[in-house]
Design brief:
Layout lengths: L4 H9 L10 H14 L8 E2 L2 H8 L3 H13 L3 E4 L3 E4 L16 H4 L27 E2 L12 H13 L2 H6 L9 H14 L8 E4 L2 H12 L5 E5 L4 H9 L3 E5 L1 E2 L2 E2 L1 H7 L7 E5 L12 H14 L2 E6 L23 E7 L9 E5 L2 H14 L5 H12 L2 H28 L3 E2 L8 E6 L5 H9 L3 E2 L5 E3 L4 E6 L5 H20 L1
Parallel strand pairs: 4-16, 6-7, 6-10, 10-11, 11-12
Antiparallel strand pairs: 1-3, 2-3, 5-13, 8-9, 12-13, 14-15, 15-18, 17-18
Helix pairs in contact: 2-4, 3-4, 6-14, 8-14, 9-10, 15-17, 16-17
Length: about 500
């Protein structure tokens, strides 16, 4: 019986790894299903009994029983007592479309284009670049390898088992706030000098979602939005899609030039000003305390909103981060955007908005439409990380690593480029603003460095008649990778400057 055609086929097709995280019976079940789908095992064929099957694959008989039970539960086999286990092929539950004879091929291939017109969006065209290069640069993203995987498995598992999870899903109380909202509120009050309540706060999936919701509330077609003359392209896309008329404001070593705003605009002509709280994007220059006060006073005088994006507060590497302008705002002019959990894997990061209660109330209406489900497990995990102090521990631990990487990157740039570039060591964040002097073709630099296994995306290149610079993200690279990438950049630089 062991040498029957079915047994020989099973022995040849089935392989499993006992050290794998996937149970052996699941591995075997999946391979049998695959054999049925590919036609190796036909409908009606009898599988060997569990005793023979276990001997055939050298597994415990209980494992063989579990395999057959799993296959039966999915409808791939039928177990008939005292007779055996037989292959079934599940019937399709949907009927095929019967097409006219001259359209048979069309009926069974999905169309590439719609048969109706719709509004395309130039502003939302993807800027992502794909490459097979080993090293990929970005604008300053954290290193996912630093995510505490083993600890998170424990925290996530604990959160999934909490009996209170179901009651949170079914909560209909209007006046109660979740544990997460209260914990996030406490965290922001403790770390950023706020004195807010949950009524001043909304959490979202990301900073981009936060900004999208705010732009829908604030901006109408042709409203003037002021941004730095070099600014965040993601934010600009969101503003443009809302119909804004974007105007650029000069930026110097002290950040956004507030005097320029006062000289060139009048009351009622500005809808909002977008500003980065701790470090300007992309230049990393910090808005000075004097200019912060000046901007707050001008916002009150001209009646415009300030959107304060504090995207890299978690990565203050030297000294203390400047407190948000929103902390000093007694007139309700500032909408504060931030992120929580940037030291964690992206699916556990969350965005948030801090603003006056009436704006938050409207923002929640938008959020209810966009993301009614939310992620209670993520919120539960983050709540416990805040309560237990783990967020602080992770931030401190990773900040030491990022500071070492920043210092090493600066050292490498000095060593390899030796005066042909200019940069200032940033006080925080995960990127360095590198200016080339004299100017070179950054597109050509990107093409040359791609030949030696480095992707230099166009989204981090800044070139016009006054600027020739890149925003070099170092956070996702270790010291060995930093040196390799910078040395390759120098090789590409030498190639184009000597040609």
């Amino acid at each position: 019986m062991k040498d029957s055609p079915v047994n020989l086929l099973l022995k040849e097709l089935i392989h499993f790894d006992k050290s794998s995280a996937t149970s052996v019976y699941i591995q075997i079940s999946q391979q049998i299903i695959n054999a049925i789908q590919r036609g190796y095992l036909k409908e009606g064929m009898a599988l060997p009994g569990t005793r023979v099957f276990s001997q055939l694959l050298n597994i415990h008989r209980n494992t063989a029983v579990a395999v057959y039970d799993e296959l039966a539960s999915q409808g791939w086999v039928e177990i008939i007592p005292n007779k055996g286990t037989f292959i079934l092929v599940p019937k399709p539950k949907t009927a095929s479309i019967k097409a006219r004879s001259n359209k048979i091929n069309d009926a069974y291939s999905y169309p590439k284009t719609t048969g109706f017109p719709f509004q395309t969006s130039f502003h939302l065209a993807s800027t992502q670049e794909f490459s097979e290069t080993k090293y990929v640069l970005n604008d300053g993203q954290p290193d996912l390898r630093l995510h505490p995987i083993h600890e998170f498995s424990k925290w996530y598992g604990t959160s999934m088992k909490r009996k209170s999870l179901i009651s949170k899903w079914n909560n209909t109380s209007k006046n109660s706030y979740s544990t997460f909202e209260n914990q996030l509120c406490n965290f922001l009050n403790a770390t950023r000098g706020f004195h807010i309540k949950p009524t001043n706060l909304i959490s979202t999936r990301s900073t981009e979602m936060s900004l999208y919701i705010i732009s829908q509330l604030l901006i109408r077609k042709k409203d003037v939005v002021l941004v730095g003359n070099l600014s965040n392209y993601n934010a600009n896309m969101i503003f443009q899609e809302a119909g804004a008329n974007i105007k650029t404001i000069p930026i110097d070593e002290n950040g956004l030039d507030i005097n320029y705003i006062e000289k060139h605009f009048t009351k009622g002509k500005i809808r909002c000003v977008y500003v980065c709280s701790n470090r300007d994007y992309p230049t990393t220059n910090t808005l000075s305390a004097e200019r912060r006060l000046q901007l707050l006073q001008l916002a009150k005088k001209y009646q415009f909103a300030i959107i304060e994006d504090d995207f890299d507060y978690d990565f203050q590497l030297d000294g203390s981060a400047m407190l948000p302008m929103a902390v000093s705002d007694g007139n309700g002019m500032v909408i504060y955007l931030g992120k929580l959990g940037q030291s964690l894997f992206p699916s556990f990061q969350t965005g948030f908005v801090v603003a006056p209660e009436n704006l938050i109330s409207e923002a929640k209406n938008y959020l209810q439409m966009l993301d009614k489900q939310g992620d209670l497990i993520q919120e539960q995990v983050l709540s416990e990380l805040i309560y237990e102090g783990e967020i602080h521990r992770l931030l401190k631990k990773n900040s030491i690593i990022y500071k070492q990487r920043r210092d090493y990157a600066c050292e490498c740039f000095k060593r390899y480029f030796n005066g042909s570039i200019q940069f200032k060591k940033p006080s925080g964040g995960l990127a360095i603003w590198i200016e080339f002097n004299p100017s070179i073709s950054l597109i050509q630099l990107s093409e040359e460095v791609a030949k030696i296994d480095v992707l230099l995306p166009k989204t981090i290149l800044y070139q016009d008649k006054n600027t020739c610079a890149i925003r070099f993200g170092f956070g996702h690279l270790n010291e060995e990778e930093i040196e390799i990438v910078i040395s390759k950049l120098k090789l590409a630089y030498d190639t184009i400057t000597k040609s």
